[in-house]
Structure formats: structure tokens, C-alpha cells
Amino acid sequence: FQFSAQLGAMQHLKDQLEQQTRMIEANIHRQQEELRKIQEQLQMVHGQGLQ
Fold first, then answer.
1. Which of 3, 7, 31, 39 has the lowest tally of Cβ within 10 angstroms?
2. Distance CA 12, CA 35 (A)
3. What pTM value is reported for the model?
4. Model pLDDT, residue 3
5. SS3 assignment, position 51
6. Among candidates 12, 33, 30, 34, which has minimal Cα distance to 22?
7. Is residue 3 within a helix (H) or strand (E), and if so which, with residue range?
8. How far is residue 21's CA from residue 32's CA, in Å, rounded to a whole number?
9. 42 phi and psi, to 5 degrees?
């Protein structure tokens, strides 16, 4: 019994870690998108400043 309880706990931990990983990855994708928008805006500002 104890062994199967340990397996269950480890599976639960694994599920939690995988869920956390997915959340962090989604967060990173969002931030990369924000960064790309900011970089585009910066390029526009630089372009106008140089004219």
C-alpha cells in the first residue's frame, strides 16, 4: 500500500510541475510578444528621429 501511495504522490507532483511548466512557457510567450511590440515601436521612434 505504501508503495502505491508513494507512486500516487509522485504522479501528483509530476502533474503539478508539468502544469507549472506550461504556465511559465505561456508567460514567456506573452512577454516575448510584448517585447517584440516594444522593439517595433522603438524602431519607429528611431526612424523618425533620424529623418
1. 3
2. 35
3. 0.70
4. 85
5. coil
6. 30
7. helix 2-50
8. 16
9. -60, -40
pLDDT, tens digit, 9 for 90 and up, residues 1-51: 688 999 999 999 999 999 999 999 999 999 999 999 999 999 999 888 765
**Residue extents of the structural domains in the chain:** 20-51
- As a whole number of angstroms, the distance between CA 8 and CA 13 comes to 9
B/e letters for 23-38, b = 16+ CB within 10 Å, e = fewer, are eeeeeeeeeeeeeeee
28's grid cell: 514567456
Which amino acid is residue 12, in one-letter code?
H
- Rounded to whole angstroms, the Cα distance separating 29 from 27 reads 5
